[in-house]
Write a structure and sequence with these properties.
Layout (H helix, E strand, L loop, with lengths): L8 H8 L10 E2 L6 E2 L10 E3 L2 E2 L7
Antiparallel strand pairs: 1-2, 3-4
The chain binds zinc ion.
């Protein structure tokens, strides 16, 4: 399928103005220092917040 009509530079650029990817926010785990996403448990040690730590079981 071909486009019916060629799009102008402006129209194409307007569409792509929303295409940029935002960088992923990364916080470092205060327990072990590895990178983790904010508001999530640490992948390495399971730390969430003081007093709450998930026990991780390796699934692989
Ligand atoms: Zn950690």
């Amino acid at each position: 399928m071909l486009p019916v009509q060629r799009q102008t530079r402006t129209q194409g650029r307007k569409r792509r103005s929303h295409d940029a990817l935002k960088p992923v926010h990364v916080a470092s785990c205060p327990n072990c220092g590895s990178a983790r996403l904010p508001h999530t448990a640490c992948n390495e040690c399971g730390y969430v917040r003081p007093g709450l730590k998930l026990s991780l079981s390796k699934e692989d």
